[in-house]
Predict the structure.
Amino acid sequence: MSGATHAVLAQFSLDPSRQSDQERGLRQMILPGVRHAPGFVSGIWTRTSDGTGSTVVVAFTSGEAATDFLRSVNGNAEGQAAVGMTLDEATVVSVMAEA
């Protein structure tokens, strides 16, 4: 995460029966869009072992870029629901250190 000062930390509930839809949406729509977001540094998308949850961390070079991205996540409830995802919580956090 070299150069990251802020990140968006998000928690999602997932419908495990929709895993293939979620993975297709991630690869075809989310990743390409996020990679081109202003200030993007890196991102990690996870899935719990039972398939019912996801934690996402997307790092940015500024608080403003992270806040703009957070707005897009919050505004995408319809797209998330279309693939069996529900946003539980999302916030902008400061990056204290990286290794």
The mean pLDDT is 96. The first strand starts at residue 6 and ends at 14. DSSP finds three helices and four strands in the chain. The helical segments are 19-35, 63-74, 77-82.
